[in-house]
Automatic annotation (TrEMBL):
It comes from the Bacteria. SUPFAM superfamilies: GroES-like, NAD(P)-binding Rossmann-fold domains. This is Zinc-dependent alcohol dehydrogenase family protein. InterPro entries: ADH-like_N, ER, GroES-like_sf, NAD(P)-bd_dom_sf, Zinc-ADH_QOR/CCCR. Keywords: NADP. It comes from Sessilibacter corallicola.
Length: 328
């Protein structure tokens, strides 16, 4: 099969097209003919940082985590899928799991689900990592009806899914953005836009919550921004963040009685821990998408498999709106 291989890591590492052995099916797994894959920030981090990240695969490596495609073969013990089924998931590209920048993928059946019927392969491939992350964060934060939810970075990959899911859960949704296009997208997706460049946290807390704060804050920006999340939160509120590798003073969180949920959705893949939860979440996300309540935004630029280097550059440039997707 054709695959895009990395033989070195680093900022100038080049993906090289190569003929690679096609995987053979094994128990508990399915062999998938990949139609599309999407690029996530963690993919670019692995390419650049290599061994500095404990989750990077050994070289030579096939990167890529998300995919959508068609089942070609079924391993022993797999009962939920059949040959010819259209599936999607986040199932490779780190540690000892070969990635999706190839024509075929051997995927653990626990990590995948049937593709949403109403979405294209490219749309479905955009969902898994960001969708699981958003769903896990919002559900761990007990998001529900009549709550006020603030999503930081609502036009980003995780954020634009999170605000749609918060709407689905019945919340009153607000989201920060920093430009006209971002704010327009946030409004289009059903949230009240907040320009963090022109409004202080105190300003928008007073404006939208009468000064009491938000019940849930989903922070897809993270880092130093978590302090803004603490400030924006109501008493006894929940904060979910996807980026928490930072030193912070938790005094404000203490005096507000906040709960902090750190979402790192790669844990089941890295540690083979409760992988079936990913399959269950993806099944639920497909149900929500087929109900017309979830649709990923795809960046306007399209890429083929041999253009994966350009796709990485597109994501890293910060100019992409929505997910960067690669057709295989």
């Amino acid at each position: 099969m054709k695959a895009m291989l990395l033989n070195t890591y680093g900022s100038d590492a080049v993906f090289e097209p190569t003929e690679h052995p096609k995987p053979t099916v094994k128990p508990g797994h399915v062999l998938v003919k990949i139609a599309a894959t999407s690029v996530n920030t963690v993919d670019t981090m692995i390419r650049q940082m290599g061994e500095e990240l404990p989750l990077s695969p050994a070289l030579p490596a096939i990167l890529g985590m998300d995919f959508a495609g068609t089942v070609e073969a079924i391993g022993e013990g797999v009962t939920d899928f059949n040959v010819g089924d259209e599936v999607y998931g986040c199932a490779g590209g780190l540690a000892d799991l070969p990635g999706t920048l190839a024509e075929y993928l051997l995927a653990d059946a626990k990590l995948i689900a049937h593709k949403p019927k109403t979405l294209t392969m490219r749309e479905a491939a955009a969902i898994p990592l960001v969708g699981i992350t958003a769903y896990e964060g919002l559900t761990r934060a007990n998001t529900g009806e009549n709550q006020t939810v603030l999503v930081h970075g609502g036009s980003g990959g995780v954020g634009h899914i999170a605000l749609q899911l918060a709407n689905y859960f019945g919340a009153d949704v607000y989201s920060t953005g920093g430009g006209e296009k971002q704010l327009a997208l946030i409004e289009q997706l059903g949230a009240t836009p907040i320009n963090y460049k022109t409004e202080t946290v105190a300003d928008y807390v007073a404006k939208h919550t009468n000064g009491t704060g938000f019940n849930v804050v989903f922070d897809s920006v993270g880092g130093a921004n978590i302090i803004n999340s603490f400030e924006a939160a109501a008493l006894n509120a929940h904060i979910a963040t996807t980026v928490s590798m930072v030193e912070l003073d938790l005094t404000l969180a203490h005096f507000k009685g906040l709960s902090l949920h750190v979402v790192f959705m790669l844990i089941p893949m890295l540690h083979n821990y409760q992988r079936e939860q990913h399959g269950k979440i993806l099944t639920k996300l497909a149900e929500i998408a087929d109900a017309g309540k979830l649709k990923p935004i795809l960046d306007e630029q399209e890429f083929g498999l041999e253009e994966i280097g350009q796709a990485h550059e597109r994501l890293a440039s910060g100019k992409a709106m929505g997910k960067v997707v690669v057709s295989v």
